[in-house]
Amino acid sequence: MGKKCLKFVSISEALEELKNTLMMQSEVQKQKEIGLIIASFEEFEIRKDVLKAHPSDLIERHGLWIESDDNKKFYYGIDLVEFFLDLLNSKPLEAIGKVYSKIEWVSANVAKHQKTGANGLLIKTEMEKFKCVQCGHCCLDLSDAYQTSVPDFDVIRWECENRYDILEWVDSFAGLNDIWVNPKTGESVNRCPWLRKLPKKNKYICKIHETKPKHCLNFPKSKRHALENGCKGFHTKYAFSNTGLPES
């Protein structure tokens, strides 16, 4: 597998990564994961519930009733995530490292930055286990890869490169750059338009590999992201449950 992949993150960076991971989860999964961790702190009374949080809601929300010092409130979605991260930020560094390890399915330990001496986490990302096998899964089956928005710097790069063949598949409106939108129909695609299958092989190539969107270049973002999305290029001897723990 080669050299172990390590990275150092500040506490604020660690919390931001946790936020990104949790926001990709369903409300049911947020309720489950966050509820278990908050319960372990033994500071609050919590109770799972499903309800319409507001009169205008058309759907029921999965969240947590959290009670402390006569204050009781129902949290769900981003409010639940932000409450949890604010709470976690008040904990000792060791506790933050343990929670990071649990949520991201990796090993994280408290460490100091080699140059600045700042406190943070040293993480064994295990991304040395990833090598793209050109299976096409992310470009064919993961709609959030080809039906999403890209940052301005991707669009600016394509403009500087005169890649109008790419730009015609981008719908920029109200501050968003939606991809990939068929220029003939105005409809979002149901697979990446730049993917091509190699002749007589069960492998694929990207026609814009040298200037692909950043989110494509960075796929998978992490070990958990790879395993949750069925990435065939991430090699591990374990099958993982939705808690991140190896199944025996």
SSE arrangement:
Blueprint: E1 6-10, H1 11-23, H2 27-41, E2 45-51, E3 61-68, E4 71-76, H3 77-89, H4 93-104, E5 107-112, E6 119-124, H5 137-141, H6 143-146, E7 148-149, H7 152-160, H8 164-167, E8 171-173, E9 176-179, E10 195-197, E11 204-206, H9 214-217, H10 223-228
Antiparallel strand pairs: 1-6, 2-3, 3-4, 5-6, 7-9, 8-9, 10-11
Helix pairs in contact: 1-3, 1-4, 2-3
Provide keyphrases for this structure:
single chain, 248 residues, alpha+beta, 2 domains, three-stranded antiparallel beta sheet, 10 helices, 11 strands, disordered C terminus
Fold and architecture overview:
The chain is of the alpha+beta class. It has 2 domains: 6-128; 137-219, no CATH class. Helix content is 34%, strand content 21%. It has 10 helices and 11 strands. It has helices spanning 11-23, 27-41, 77-89, 93-104, 137-141, 143-146, 152-160, 164-167, 214-217, 223-228; strands at 6-10, 45-51, 61-68, 71-76, 107-112, 119-124, 148-149, 171-173, 176-179, 195-197, 204-206. The strands form 4 sheets. The chain has a 3-stranded antiparallel β-sheet. Strands 2-3-4 form a 3-stranded antiparallel β-sheet, with helices on one face. A 3-stranded antiparallel β-sheet has the order 7-9-8. A hairpin with a 6-residue loop joins strand 5 and strand 6. The radius of gyration is 21 Å and the shape is globular. The two termini are 23 Å apart.
